[in-house]
Automatic annotation (TrEMBL):
Keyword presence, Calcium: no
Residue ranges of TPR repeats: 25-58, 59-92
Keyword Repeat among record annotations: yes
Protein name in UniProt: Tetratricopeptide repeat protein
InterPro entries: TPR-like_helical_dom_sf, TPR_rpt, Ycf3
Keyword list, A-Z: Repeat, TPR repeat
Amino acid sequence: MKAVQWYEKASNQLPEEEEVKEALAEAWYQQGTDRLLAKHYEESISALSRTIELSPTHVNAYINRGVTYYDQKEYAKAIVDYTRALRAKYPFSAWIRVSVAKRYLNRTLHHKMRSSGKGCFALIITVVDPNWQWKL
């Protein structure tokens, strides 16, 4: 906790210093991870959220906050954070490929649903990505 306090003071005095901001984000990340391991979930979410405020591309902060939500059975929030971790880590071209793959998956599932008369795949896709929509 002392490291966080020290970096907060430095950040307030030198708000432009990117190195101080990164060090502060890392201190909050360590605190959030420690709180997660101790199963102090609310404190973990708070610290990891502060990490993300300071460093929006901190992949591990999104992952650990997702784990925290998962442990609390808040699966939708966990999926959102896992997706944000992917977006922070991988370039736009990777997401284009994901979109293309989803389109082909959509066509395949649609064909299977029409031929089998079953709609169970819609539930699976909704759980995996609630924002994904069928395009018939």
